[in-house]
Amino acid sequence: MKQPAFSLACPACGYHELYSRPLPECPRCGEEWLEARYNLPAAVEGWPAALADRPASLWRYRELLPIWDDANIVSLGEGWTPLIRADSLGLMLGRPHLYLKDERQSPTGSFKDRQASVFASMLKESAITEAVVASTGNVAIAYSAYCARAGIKLWTFITSRVPADKMREIMLYGSELVKVSSTYDQTKAIAAHFARTRGLHVDKGVKSIAAKEAMKTVAFEIAEQLPVALTHRGDTTTQGSRTGWQAPDWYIQAVSGGLGPVGVHLGFEQLLEAGLVDRVPKMAHIQVEGCAPMALAYRHGLDSAQAVRHPKTHITTLATGTPGATYTWLKRTADRYGGHFDSVNDEEAYRALHVLAKMEGISVEPAAAVAFAGLFKMIQQGLIGPDEVVVVNCSGHTFPVEQQILGQAWDRRHEVAGAVAESPREGLTAAISRLDRQTTRVAIIEDNADAARLLRRILQARGGFVIDEARDGPTALAMLRQNPPDLIILDLMLPGIDGFGVLNQLKEDERLAPIPILVVSAKSMTAQERAQLRAQTEGFLEKGTFTDEDLIDRIMIHLNGQ
Question: Which DSSP letter does residue 517 get?
Fold first, then answer.
């Protein structure tokens, strides 16, 4: 099967030609940023009904992908990754419509497999048998796998800070690996010079057709999957377009050079133009503080970003210091459709990595954790409303935890007979490990099973706690009298005897009265009720407004008797 015709277009000067081969630059003006243009009505005719019988890969959308002939497709089953509701995170953050696009389940473990599939396919179609790429790790791994499958020799130029595990995987696929002891931006320049001297095709990242076209399939999948996910959860708070497809309110991704968000935005714009969705989502671009040229420029209201010459971050996959025209492009779309740029530090990213693993059972690499740290920050800033639908890109899976990722301060060992179990720990919440081992019994009194599970999981993830639970007032009082805890977490809306009744009985019991009580509730209270809480408890946290760190911090204070 051959797809409808498409053209290469130069957005700078308007030049266009029917596509026949990859072009390194515009023949008229020399601009390297080229785009593919389609006859959208003809290309999507019959969508979405026609997609129902197609394979679960990104090539299900092949009418809007830059390949003429299906015989040239190089695929390992990439795309159509799950869209997963983040139940515990959503409950903790008070954002019930929070979804994760799980790109970790791609063939080589990152969303770069999309890019590699389209890249290798376009080279195969043009009979190109040798190519060059510069990378901070994931691109080189993905390109190496797909070029091996396509029979294309690949030269990979990487920075010396790429972890050894990733270097070994690149070489496993038979790629030529060139390690450069410099920044990523300088590594790209060296790779480009090498390609020119050898007359080889070089990947140009966001400027290339393959990269942008591949990443837009993330948008296609989200729009197709989201209505099903919302319906499955009984969510009726949002309405999709007449086609049954739907765009979220927010799309959040960690950003290095900005390729992913550019492609995703193009995808949603094409869906909007084709009438398949009713809006383009607001997009949040999160960078790491040690290399955040886009976030800095946005913070100062600038339309162009100043280069960061010397990145200072251990998260090397995001250390692109020169975004060039990409920031200007993304800033323009943010001004038009709404959006945000921000940065988080390494420690915040590592903390988010642990929270996600411990709350949702999803392990991501530090670069992907940057997006979740940004999500936490945006919620604290009030930028994301409680009823908004949010999709975060889990762009890649974690790799074996090494010293360079977590450092000595994150290592915790528990020795047991005949074995040693290891698990990482976090900066602020690591203080829990210093608590007196005799003061670790916590009682959770909560009638909502999901809320109780979240509280229990937060405590379990920190270790060292014995947890008792009760779902109603009478059962709670009996439990507390039998096994007095060191701290009580109390909901106010309980069956049998409500939280205020439980409080009164506890304070009348000489043995239980000294136990610190932390109230966690969604109840709207009168001034009199608030006064009672101030007199009888150590604090109040409103459900859906606190993070795991807030809760642990409160517990640590009261267990230490501060």
Answer: E
Q: Taken in order 408, 409, 410, 415, is the CA torsion positive or negative?
A: positive
Strand, coil or helix: 260:
helix
DSSP 186-248: HHHHHHHHHHHHHT-EE--GGGSHHHHHHHHHHHHHHHHHHHHHHHHTT--S----TTS----
pTM of the model: 0.83
Interior/surface letters 285-321, b for 16+ CB within 10 angstroms, e for the rest: bbbbbbbbbbbbbbeeeeeebeebeebebbbbbbbbb
Phi, psi torsion values for 122, nearest 5 degrees: -65, -40
Determine contact, residues 559/438, Cβ cutoff 8 Å: no
Return averaged pLDDT per consecutive 10 residues of the chain, 562 residues in all: 72 90 88 91 90 93 93 96 95 94 94 96 93 92 94 91 84 89 88 92 91 96 95 57 84 94 96 95 97 96 92 88 91 96 96 92 93 96 96 81 41 30 34 42 92 84 81 96 94 94 94 93 88 89 80 76 52
Domains of the chain: 112-207 (3.40.50.1100), 429-559 (3.40.50.2300)
Query: Do 385 and 294 touch, CB atoms closer than 8 A?
Result: no
